[in-house]
Amino acid sequence: MVVQTPAASATADRPTKKKWVYLFTAGKAEGNATMRALLGGKGAGLAEMTNAGLPVPPGFTITTEACNAYFASGQRFPDGLWDQVLEGVRATERQAGKRLGDAKDPLLVSVRSGAAMSMPGMMDTVLNLGLNDESRAGLAKLTGNERFAWDAYRRFIQMFGRIVLEIDGSKFEHALDAAKKRARAKADTDLTAEQLRALVDDFRKIVRKEKGRDFPSDPTEQLRLAIEAVFRSWFGKRAQDYREVNKIAHDLGTACSVVTRVFGNMGNASGTGGAFPRAPTTGERAIFGEYLLNAQGEDVVAGIRTPRKLSELERDLPKAYRQFAEIAQRLERHYREVQDLEFTIERGKLYMLQTRSAKRTARAAVKIAVDMVREGLIDKKEALKRVEPVQVDQLLLPHFDEKAVEKARREGRYLGKGLNASPGAATGRAVFEADRAVEWKGKGEVVLLVRPETSPDDFHGMIAAAGILTSRGGSTRSTRS
Q1: Domain 398-480 annotated CATH 3.50.30.10
Q2: d(Cα 113, Cα 326) in Å, to the nearest integer?
Q3: 412-455: per-residue pLDDT in tens?
Q4: Domain ranges across the chain
């Protein structure tokens, strides 16, 4: 006769439910920094910062296992996932004191990708999810700012349409450019509430024409579609190209974090940016970063506006700057590693959105490793591990001869200068399209990719080029990519 123990009997009667969703709410997270393989770098970072008591917007992370199960099931959510997502939404609503889709005080969320191995910009993220006609009106009334609400709505439709509905992004860009031309506006921020309202109508018409249906207004449908889009981006071309170049396995999957949305575009007491406790190009121990006032995160990433040096934030928003500087140093000591940080300031209140190990140049890697030994953060053995062979190769890259540069200035042959985002110097034929860069390299040409700003869709051309020149964007954005 076989006698079951109580534990064994309970397991037999009630199989353990697979956990697909991990919360980070109320200052306590179900995960931590050791769970990168399951929660991805972004999810593990959000959990760790939450547990450390830092100002992190509440939310939850869907695991990399759920992503892999989604593909194993023929691109279907595995059993129990959607129910756990809805439970996560309810927990986030309770913590935020808002409800998804509410007409009076709407909860908006970001749906963000995040693999265990850092793949900056290679997968998709959807911002401002939860907006429809009713919640937009509620957002306007709640903030007393019609322009802000319409701007958030047009950004959401544009991003959702491009990423989730897979509409050619240039169609939205052309409509935006046309709106700015009609208004004689130099930048998006110059458009009025009424002009943005008209732009929203234009964007909806694009969706209707391209997809044969109206833009989805149900926030739960928006959420489900966005999660699927994030999962699918794991096998997007640019993500696969990046993994091939960086020798990252294709079977890891991406996690998906759903985070309460905070806004950097609510006026000049708001802003967004990214920074490092040490300069990733030189290794200097000083906060290095960029920010934009009255902007959302995609404005910095997309290079639409040229950001300002983070040191200027001390003048614009001194309290938020001091708090961020303290948190940056605290996280570096905690991880014993230079961190790449993203933040948003909403009406003067700082929120931390991401922390991850920072990419750096070879010169910076050597200096940072040596300095951290002197500071007692790491030992010499660990310092040697942190300088990779590929970084030693970078030290041997060609550089401009400063004497020759000065001579060119005197002779009138010097055309201009910009912000360097990586080490080395390059010459070659100027190419203005990523596909053309790949084509010409295949013919044996050395090419320089020239773009207004680069995007993840240009990655294959960036690999093919000996150098990259852009007219917009900042140095931290290029360092991350």
Answers
A1: yes
A2: 27
A3: 887 777 766 666 788 888 999 889 988 888 888 889 899 887 77
A4: 398-480
